[in-house]
TrEMBL record:
GO CC terms: cytosol
Entry EC number(s): 2.1.3.2
Positions contributing to L-aspartate binding: 103, 186, 240
Species name: Sphingopyxis indica
Name this protein carries in UniProt: Aspartate carbamoyltransferase
Catalytic activities: carbamoyl phosphate + L-aspartate = N-carbamoyl-L-aspartate + phosphate + H(+)
Matches recorded under PANTHER family: ASPARTATE CARBAMOYLTRANSFERASE, ORNITHINE CARBAMOYLTRANSFERASE, MITOCHONDRIAL
Self-association state and partner proteins as the record states: Heterododecamer (2C3:3R2) of six catalytic PyrB chains organized as two trimers (C3), and six regulatory PyrI chains organized as three dimers (R2).
Domain Aspartate/ornithine carbamoyltransferase carbamoyl-P binding span(s) in chain numbering: 22-165
InterPro entries from the UniProt entry: Asp/Orn_carbamoyltranf_P-bd, Asp/Orn_carbamoylTrfase, Asp/Orn_carbamoylTrfase_sf, Asp_carbamoyltransf, Asp_carbamoyltransf_Asp/Orn-bd
Binding residue positions for carbamoyl phosphate: 75-76, 125, 153, 156, 281-282
């Protein structure tokens, strides 16, 4: 594809041609205009959620959505459940981490079982990279990835993009620093894919032990010095440092990590004066981020990210089920 034929992100085709995918398993499958299409679709749900009208929306009335979470996540599960119910769907939560999968049932068997239940859409979270795609290949309904291993977490990247766009007025041409445990983060991977695709300068800031090999191949700039990585940034996106990384294998101690890579007011001053601060949650206060930064309403967007998460997931469920519902133009 030549530069002359690349469609601008804001210029998407009409009807079903705007989003041709049956599933949403990752950002890697999307074009810039497909991302913009989802963000624009989510805008209506933001406003309706705030007005309270979406509680009575019946776009997905009569449809059944299964949230199959093979990996625990109260926040993401709750967000998807609220999204489905606000669209009028019947939502069933399958806590697969405590199900027969623990007793030896294979993932393919589980996929076949889910398919036999004739759900209209399945939301899947799994601890293994690629598991969501494997299930998507075996079922007859749309599948939405709620996070798989170190691979992707597409709705997190989409809600982050929507948050940035609403707070800064655009989500292109910005300098965005993604800081912390990039090596193990599917959130980082999906955000890198989305934000570079939309034309931003993306920086990765982390200790050398938490930077994946050949990171530059993802078209990012790599920094191991936090102050240098934040210099002039429009967006500072912090990543959660998981407890198992603090045992000395990747980091000497939480205290040393905070000293070198924790986001403090003094460190945030290196970014632009109006830079926003993001975090996917849950936070380790006093480790990757100070409370007075996380709770600063002028800079922090953390609660807005949660709000945008419901709207984005509503948009994704709506879009992925339009062919099932035979929406005009979506054949």
């Amino acid at each position: 594809m030549t530069s002359a034929t690349i469609r601008p992100a804001s210029d998407y085709p009409p009807g079903g041609d705007a989003f041709r995918h049956r599933h949403l398993t990752g950002i890697a499958q999307l074009t810039p205009w497909e991302i913009s299409y989802i963000l624009d679709a989510a805008e209506q749900w933001v406003e309706l959620n705030r007005a309270g009208a979406a509680k009575h929306d019946d776009a997905l009335r009569g449809l059944t959505i299964i949230n199959a979470f093979f990996e625990n996540s109260t926040r993401t599960l709750l967000s998807f459940e609220i999204a489905g119910k606000r669209l009028g769907a019947d939502v069933v939560n399958m806590h697969a981490a405590q199900s027969s999968v623990k007793k030896g049932e294979t993932l393919i068997d589980t996929a076949m079982t889910l398919n036999a239940m004739r759900a209209d859409a399945i939301v899947i979270r799994h601890q293994s990279s690629g598991a969501v795609q494997l299930i998507a290949d075996k079922v007859d309904c749309p599948v939405l990835n709620a996070g798989d291993g170190r691979h992707e977490h597409p709705t997190q990247a989409l809600l982050d993009a929507l948050t940035i766009r609403r707070r800064l007025g655009r989500v292109e041409g910005l300098t965005i620093a993604i800081c912390g445990d990039v090596l193990h983060s599917r959130v980082a991977r999906s955000n890198i894919l989305a934000l570079t695709l939309l034309g931003n300068e993306v920086r990765v800031v982390a200790p050398p032990t938490l930077i994946p090999p050949a990171m530059e191949r993802m078209h990012v700039r790599v920094f191991t010095d936090m102050d240098a990585g934040l210099d002039g940034a429009d967006v500072v996106m912090m990543l959660r440092l998981q407890n198992e990384r603090m045992d000395g294998a990747y980091l000497p101690s939480p205290r040393e990590y905070h000293a070198l890579y924790g986001l403090t007011p003094q460190r945030l001053a290196k970014a632009k004066p109006d830079a926003i601060v993001m975090h996917p949650g849950p936070m380790n206060r006093g480790v990757e981020i100070d409370s007075n930064v996380a709770d600063d309403p002028a800079r922090s967007t953390i609660t807005e990210q949660v709000e945008m998460g419901v709207a984005v997931r509503m948009a994704c469920l709506d879009i992925l089920t339009r062919r099932t519902r035979k929406v005009p133009g979506w054949n």
